[in-house]
Amino acid sequence: xxxxxTSLGRGLVxxxxxxxxxxxxxxxxxxxxxxxxxxxxxxxxDSWQSHNEGDALVAFRMACLHExxxxxxxxxxxxxxxxxxxxxxxxxxxxxxxxxLKIETVFAxxxxxxxxxxxxxxxxxxxxxxxxxxxxxxxxxxxPPGAVRTGAGEPYKVFTPFKRAxxxxxxxxxxxxxxxxxxxxxxxxxxxxxxxxxLELEENKKLTQKIPEHLPHFAIDTAKSGIVKGWxxxxxxxxxxxxxxxxRISGYQAERDFPALDSTSHLSPYLNCGAISIxxxxxxxxxxxxxxxxxxxxxxxxxxxxxxxxxxxxxLLVDFPHLSKGQPFKAETDQIPWRYDxxxxxxxxxxxxxxxxxxxxxxxxxxxxxxxxxxxxVVASFLSKNLxxxxxxxxxxxxxxxxxxxxxxxxxxxQWTASTGTDAAPYFRxxxxxxxxxRFDPNGDFIRRYVPELDSLNNKEIxxxxxxxxxxxxxxxxxxxxxxxxxxxxxxx
Length: 493
Hints:
Helix content is about 45%, strand content about 10%. The protein is an alpha/beta fold.
């Protein structure tokens, strides 16, 4: 006989980019309603590669998955792993899994890029045909896409009014993370979860409780160690990062733009793979700021605003599907005569432009799979404005190399800087890499760290060095590039 707190026998939690047990909406509701519970993670390397996900991102995801499996085991919830090729194979696979494991409902947290939405709709339809429900919970954003609307019921296209509306809606209820699910009783004799299952799919796919150490297309050999490009993976590491940042968040606004300082949260890789939730981050900030969203401590309210930017870009993906198709938000900007110079692009990507702050930023990305946010704008502006190279080349390169490559935020950031997106920087705003360098790395400390061949220069020369045998000449006239970009944008009809 089922207890009053449960209404289902067997449930299955389908994990994706939500690799944690704390404040996990799908896991919480599944644990509350199901007597027995299992979990599954489905890797689709071909689809991941087609979405330009890179080695660092996938290795970090797999490392977090290892820790998640261990945590779930302490609650008697087995985590299964299945490797397919593409998203298109997932509906058939889940149909077989639910039938073989006698699952009544699949619980998952919603994902919002267009291909992921299509996959999830196909899964729901396939399972429904077989009498199995698929529940998708809102978990990646503070409020589900579609919940924040103008007075006319339209989606917001500008950040500031979106932020005001979201805060007003969120202020009506407490930001309260969900508890960890209770430990499940061990299955009765004869009802144990099997260690593995052979599925009737192409290539004789096997559902197993062993997470592999290799995946097609990706170098994930570091995943088992739990440290990827110097980043410690998992939910415990995410919570430690959050606590450390809470101790210095008050200075965030004053120091966040200086890349040589350790003044940002470094939480983006964990938010991206779901090792920590947006609600946990927001709760920390609001608690320290006595519940104030926009007033109180300037550093805290500034960081709250940055979190809301993540929500804004995710909401846009749902309301404007063409953003998932490689198209600019502003259709007219597709008329821009972008340049497709592979040599210039390669020099930008390697950090060999001859502009020290740009080179230091790109080398940071290539070395640790992460880049300081101020510098993301500087290098994006240099590529899309000074070089007039298609922003999509840069967007793709970032996704292929960032450990925190969130599609919505990456696309939104690139389109903002390239002046092709919603609420974008005005087309005549072009970051001057030299003044940015002098302002935010005044002593050249960050440049010296990643461009050591300039270490002998004084604090003035290091931003715009003289001709040197061991450092490349500047690949473009920054001033002329700015003038050209403004001209082509101003000529748009």
